[in-house]
Amino acid sequence: MPSQPPPPGERANEATRHLPIQEPERHNELAAATVLVSGGRPAHHPGAELTQPLSLNATYIAGGAVDYARSGNPTWDAFEDTLGRLEGGSALVFASGTAAIHAVLDLVPSGGRIGAPRTVYSGTAVALDDLATSGDAEVTRVDIADTPAVLAAIAAGPAPELVWIESPVNPTLEVADVETIAAAAHARGALVAADNTFATPLLARPLTQGADIVAHSVTKYLAGHSDVILGALVTAQNSVHREAGVYESLRAKRSRRGAIAGPAEVWLALRGMRTLHVRLERACANAATLVARLREHPGVMRVRYPGFGAIISIEVGDASRADAVADAVTLWTNATSLGGVESLLERRRRHAAEPVSVPTDLLRLSVGIEDVEDLWADLDRALRPT
Ligand SMILES: *Cc1c(COP(=O)(O)O)cnc(C)c1O
Fold first, then answer.
1. pLDDT tens digits, 123-132
2. Cα dist. 277→1, 91, 165, 224 in Å?
3. Measured between alpha carbons, how far is 371 from 331 in angstroms, rounded to an integer?
4. Catalytic residue status for 195
5. Does residue 220 carry a catalytic annotation?
6. Residue 126 Cβ contacting ligand 1 at under 6 Å
7. Other CB atoms within 10 A of residue 338 CB
8. Which among 70, 253, 302, 350 is annotated as catalytic?
C-alpha cells in the first residue's frame, strides 16, 4: 500500500517537521509517477475525501500548528508535500516563480557576492542587474556550461554568498554540471540554488547533486495548463547549510512579507501536477521528433536542444524573419511562457529585458502535447523561406 502523508491535523509542529531527517522516508521508495498521483491526499479512512479539498480559510482555531492562513494552508501542505517528495526536500509555495527567486536573493547579505549564469531567465537577470546597480550585491556572470570558467569565478576574490544555477538555461538551453559547481561553491561556503523550471524533478533533481535550494516557476510544467501563476522553492534536508536554517528563514519571510499564493491557484497546480509524467513524456517525444526535422530544415540556421526536455530554441537568420515565423503559425501560438499542454513559440528578444546574450533571431519553442504531425505541418509551413 502506498504510504500516505499524515493528514493536516497530524502534520503538526511546523517547526520540526521540516528539519533534516536522517532516515530515508518510506515514500522515497515510490517512483515519481506514483508520488505525482498519490502525493498530498487525505489519509485513507472510510468516508475520507479522495482529493485534498480547496481550503478557503483565513484563520484557524487556536492551539494548532498554524494560527493564520498567511503562514499555512492545508491546500499548500498538499502541494508542498508532493513537490518536496519529488525533489527530495522541503517545499514552500510562493505567489510566482519570480517571488520565489527574490526570496532566495534576499538571503544574500548586503554587499555579498553572487555568481550567476551569463544567460539566465530574464526576470532573474533583471533582479541581478538591480542588485548590482544598487550596490546591494556584487554579481559575477559566467557561461554556466563552461565549468572551468564557473569554477575559476567561484575561486577568485572574496567568497561568494550564493551561486545561482539555471539548467537548462532559458532560452539558450546551456546545461550546468551541478555536482561539480555545487562542490566548489560549498568549499567556499556559498549557498547553491538551482532554477529547475525547464527540467522539472522528472528530468533533473539538483538537490541530489548538491544544490541547497531548487526554484520553480510552477506556472510552467508543474501546473502545466497555462492557467495559474505560481512558484516554489525546495530546500535540501541534508544541506550543508542546514545549521543556517534556510528553510525556516525562507518560510518565516514568506509569512512576514505576505505576498503569498492563493489556495485556489495551488489547488489547480496540484491537480495539474497529477499528470506531469504523462504530459512530459508526450511533450519530450514530440520535441525529439521536431528536433530531428528542424535540423534538416532549410529555413533553420541553428537548433539548440540539450538532448532532453521539451523546449527547443531555433535561430532563423534575422529578427524580422523570426517575427514573420511567429506571425505565420496558426496551430502554434505566438505567446510568452512555456510548459503548458499547448505549443507556444516566441522571439525572446522582443522583450527589452531579455539578456543581450540571447540571439535576436532566436525563437523559443515550448512543445506541447498535440499530435506531432500537426505541429510539424504548421511549423514547416511557417519556416519556409518566402
Ligand atoms: C517563467 C520562469 C520564471 C518566472 O516564473 P513566474 O512564475 O513567471 O514568476 C523563472 N525561471 C524560469 C526558468 C522561467 O521560465
1. 999 999 999 9
2. 21, 19, 24, 11
3. 11
4. yes
5. yes
6. no
7. 25
8. 70
